[in-house]
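Here is one chain, start to finish.
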Amino acid sequence: MTDSETTETIEAIEDGMILDYITDQPIKEGPKEPVVQRTARALFHEYHIDIDDMVRDFVVTVEEANSKKKKIKIDIAIFSAGDEQIAENIKRVVVCEKQPKVGKKVPLMRSHEQAKSDLAKLESIMRALPQCDWGLWTNGVDFFYVQKTETRFDTEFNPVGDWPLGGDSFGTREVYSDAQFRVAKEDVLRITFRRCHNYIHGNEGMSKEVAFWQFLYLIFAKMHDEKVNRPRQFWAGPTEQFSAEGQKSIRARIEPLFKQVKKEYKQFGVFDGSEQLKLSDRALAFMVSELFKYDFGRTEMDVKGAAYQKIFGNNLRGDKGQFFTPRSAIDLMVEIIAPQENETVLDPSCGTGGFLVSTLKHIEWEVRKEICKSPRFPTDTEWKKYTRG
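Its structure:
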């Protein structure tokens, strides 16, 4: 099911209701629903977990500390394809809470230990489900991934940096530098960028401008690594960020990579060679763990640009006097001008390349319509059918 197919299912929804991404049915717009909906979309688009394998508000019975039993709703229960959707077969669980209001204050990014009370509900649910090895607790700002392991005497819940993709497990991967990376959706990438910037500014005590540049250094390192390195150097194992030894291992990969970046881009005047990564081992490990999972090369340019603008636009406007043109205004101007294949486009203040990307999309649209003899934008399936011959 695609986003466009979902929105076409119901023409109008009553006030106070939204269309649930999983059930495709109207649901009351409660305070935590935006978090649930974003998470469901990420599970489908990024982790490749089928919508049919997700169940909303699944009720399970858990045993509390006083041995009393209590029924709890799981916001999203996840099963393996083809399994009967009963509690005994749940493989992953997601617990969502409403997103906190932080205003202009940058929130501190908590550790698993600092969020122990919040994770108690998640752990009690996972303890009651014999096949459930993976859990996620999120309020849209914090994301805590947990892996359950059974020992001879106890059940342990270990922090991990991320979940494996659908149908995968961390145990099946030997080389994380060659792991399958994801194509990011705009809303998810925007959250990731914000978490990275907030971590530096809030947890490291750096000013917004210093945090901004430290983040950009890592973005350059990530994109350079995707272009030239096999195996890749910009990566983090699932548990590396949670130990001092693992954090030092991440730094040992990133520091030489950043030296490559400075040397490569010094010739273009981007760096002068004196730049340094001033992040602590802990902060650097957090940032790399957040960013490495996405394949920036396969993520659409306007998605990266939109996420970048949304998070850092205020910093640039306040400190550098720069302004971004709204995407809707860009698309309107390009549509009016109607650039053609044989024409040249000049954008001397390109910023994140909004006009250039919109121009390319406009031309692609016109080419596809002409080839497919269609008045609307042909789908990828239609396009492949026409171009195969």
